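To illustrate the input format used throughout this study, we show a single complete record. The first block contains the structure-token representation of the backbone; no residue identities are included at this stage. The design step must infer an amino acid for every position from geometry alone.
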């Protein structure tokens, strides 16, 4: 089972600024946490982070050719703006779980819209890095059914 963990803009900045919202751990800490969990679960996991919308679209299309079974996706700010990213996930038709580190539903109005949630099989928010772990477990179970 091949799962891609895709992260959008500024996620590479985790732990550097705004620790009160996103915590003190870094992007590398996140990768380590997911890698260990995926290994224990026997899941083949790969990672990609980009600050560029088109780059994320390219990576979603690549997931189709690479025969990726599922995507764990935190589109970050593009969650709230990007029809291109929604269309890409629709086009590849790969089961996708949306993850947000912070509780977006309790934040600013402009964060209340999520385009990706229109296609995501599940949305997890406000659980910090553990949200990615929950997403992996959910996706694994979903794909095994
Ligand atoms: O809570 C989440 O995971 C978000 O997707 C994170 C995005 C934000 O735009 C979404 O509304 C919710 C922001 C990514 C991280 O941004 C940072 C900003 C400053 C310092 C470190 C990270």
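Output of the design step:
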């Amino acid at each position: 089972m091949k799962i891609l963990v895709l992260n959008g803009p500024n996620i590479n900045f985790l732990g550097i600024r705004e620790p009160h919202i996103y915590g003190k751990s870094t992007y590398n800490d996140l990768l380590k946490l997911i890698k260990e969990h995926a290994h224990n679960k026997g899941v083949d996991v790969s990672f990609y982070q980009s600050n560029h919308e088109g780059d994320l679209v390219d990576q979603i299309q690549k997931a189709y050719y690479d025969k990726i079974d599922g995507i764990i996706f935190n589109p970050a700010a593009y969650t709230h703006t990007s029809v291109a990213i929604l269309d890409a996930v629709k086009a590849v038709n790969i089961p996708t779980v949306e993850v947000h580190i912070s509780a977006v539903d309790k934040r600013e109005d402009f964060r209340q819209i999520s385009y990706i949630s229109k296609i995501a099989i599940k949305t997890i928010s406000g659980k910090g890095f553990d949200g990615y772990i929950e997403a992996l477990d959910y996706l694994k179970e979903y794909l095994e059914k």
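Structural context for interpreting the output: The pocket of CA2 is lined by residues 10-11, 13-14, 16-18, 22, 74, 76-77, 79, 100-102, 104, 111 (CB under 6 Å). The chain has a mean pLDDT of 97.
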